[in-house]
Design goal:
Helix content: 40-55%
Shape: globular
Largest sheet: 8 strands, mixed
Radius of gyration: 17 Å
CATH topology: Rossmann fold
CATH superfamily: P-loop containing nucleotide triphosphate hydrolases
Oligomer: single chain
Number of helices: 11
Strand content: 15-25%
Number of strands: 8
Distance between the termini: 17 Å
């Protein structure tokens, strides 16, 4: 992927978390990256833009009654951009930084309405700008819908950096190659993470293979952790397990993101 920095607009450093296929651990990484950045003292927003299959609220320990309004309501002109935002800083016990969350609706009728109507890139920009201004955000993490559709291209076009997540099965690798080409066409810098590497697989060889195949550096190779899988519906993993290898590897990614943000 290109390493040039092309910050799209004023405001926070915007990062799209994307994968070609579902089931890559994309949302888990998005939620934990956002928390990792907040733990570094940053004011962070995390937005669920997977409008067809929202799930970040589960990872962030929220229930339906906690979400009075959603991003869907904004796109359907039912509320302002800032009304759906939920401040999770105290709820998650964060002593440093700030974390706010913009949920998507998991009600079937809301999903169908937004997917049928779509939304304009300008509305998406407005949402990010207004939320960021109100909460003084340093960074916005955007969890996208997997694959290639209009919302994917909107997110990639607006964001300053793209984090692509891939497993090592053939379909994922093929699709990740397509996403890298799109990111390069849009001149968006990106990070490539290999995730959920099975036990017994040589991670260094995986890294070398992917870097050769994509002619692009792999920022991190993350093993499959059964303990992370077990915690999906109950907690933000790194908060309860700050010394785990998963937390350490995400901290490495955070350092790269912060370096890129300072360079813009």
């Amino acid at each position: 992927m290109t390493t040039s920095n092309t910050k799209s607009t004023d405001g926070p450093f915007k990062v799209a978390i994307h994968s070609f296929k579902g089931g890559t651990g994309k949302s888990t990484i998005a939620a934990n990256l956002a928390v990792s950045l907040a733990l570094e003292g940053r004011n962070v927003g995390v937005m669920d833009l997977d409008l067809a299959g929202p799930g970040l609220h589960v990872l962030l320990e929220l229930k339906q009654e906690d979400m009075k309004l959603t991003l869907n309501d904004f796109f359907l002109d039912k509320c302002s951009a800032v009304e759906p935002v939920i401040d999770l800083t105290r709820r998650l016990g964060l002593k440093k930084g700030k974390l706010v969350f913009v949920p998507a609706s998991f009600r079937a009728d809301d999903i169908v309405r937004v997917l049928s109507k779509g939304y304009e890139i300008q509305n998406f920009r407005i949402a990010i700008q207004e939320i960021s201004r109100l909460h003084n955000l340093d960074c916005m993490i955007i969890d996208t819908h997997p694959g290639i559709d209009k919302s994917t291209l909107v997110a990639m076009g607006v964001c300053d950096m793209i984090v692509l997540i891939s497993r090592i099965d053939s379909q994922d690798i093929l699709g990740t190659g397509v996403m890298i080409e799109i990111a390069n066409t849009l001149k968006k810098p990106g990070l490539l993470l290999a995730n959920m590497i099975p036990p017994g697989v040589d991670r260094e060889k995986v890294k070398q293979r992917l870097e050769t195949l994509f002619n692009s550096p792999v920022t991190e190779v993350i093993p499959f952790y059964t303990e992370v899988l077990r915690a999906l519906s109950t907690e933000v993993f790194i908060l309860k397990n700050p010394d785990h290898d998963f937390a350490r590897r995400l901290k490495n990614v955070v350092e790269v993101l912060q370096t890129s943000a300072r360079a813009t």
